[in-house]
Every structure is written in C-alpha cells, then in structure tokens.
Specification:
Layout lengths: L1 H38 L2 H14 L8 E5 L4 E8 L10 E10 L2 E11 L6 E3 L2
Antiparallel strand pairs: 1-2, 2-3, 3-4, 4-5
C-alpha cells in the first residue's frame, strides 16, 4: 500500500511539474515583453507595431528592420514558429529588438490565428 501511494505521488508530480514549468516560462515571457514595451516611447511602439504586423505575414526567421527617425530608436522584428504550433491554428513568436539611447532591449510576443483564414491575435 505504501509503495502504491509513493508511486501515485511520483506520478502526480511528473504530471504537474511540466505544467508548472511551462507556466513559469510563460510568466517570464509575459514579464519580459511588458518591460520591453513599457521602456519604449509611444512613438516608437507605433512604428514597431506596424512592422510586427508585417512580420506576421512575412517569411519565418527573416529579420525585418524598423526605425523611428524622430527618436533615433531602431531595431528588428523576427518571426519564428514555436515548437508547439498547430497547423490548423498556427502561431508565431515575434522576437522584437530595439536600441534606445544606446541600450539594447529585447522581448518576445506570441501571436496565433484561429483557423487558416483567421486574423492574428496576440496571446502575450
């Protein structure tokens, strides 16, 4: 009976631990993109968001440059396919980078589509 309880406890841990790890990784990604976006001025975010919309439609792994001549801020947006992307509901991760006042910033955001013809929506 004790062995059965130990086995059940170990089995439950093996099921719960990966989910907890995935949640921790998601929390870190959400915090990183929030900090990235809070650091950039609104004028830079407007330019970045326009390029991010283009990146969702562009080739994977091809960096798209962006720049705001008014502020001098520039960077890239690179679309990636996450490992867990479902062909029927595709997702992309956008690696977003910027140089603001000589300081390098980075963040990722995840976007998914509902079905083949659906619109992209931001997950984080």
């Amino acid at each position: 009976m004790i062995r059965l309880r130990r086995f059940a406890s170990l089995f439950a841990l093996l099921l719960v631990a990966p989910a907890a790890l995935a949640n921790a990784e998601l929390d870190r990604a959400k915090a990183a993109i929030a900090a990235f976006r809070q650091t950039l001025p609104a004028a830079d975010l407007a330019v970045l968001d326009g390029v991010a919309a283009q990146a969702l439609k562009s080739d994977l792994y091809k960096p798209l440059p962006w720049a705001n001549p008014a502020t001098g801020t520039a960077g890239t947006v690179t679309p990636h396919r996450p490992e867990d992307s479902d062909p029927e509901n595709p997702c992309r991760v956008l690696d977003q980078r910027a140089v603001l006042n000589g300081r390098e910033l980075a963040g990722e955001s995840r976007w998914c589509k509902t079905g083949y013809g659906g619109d992209w929506f931001k997950v984080y």
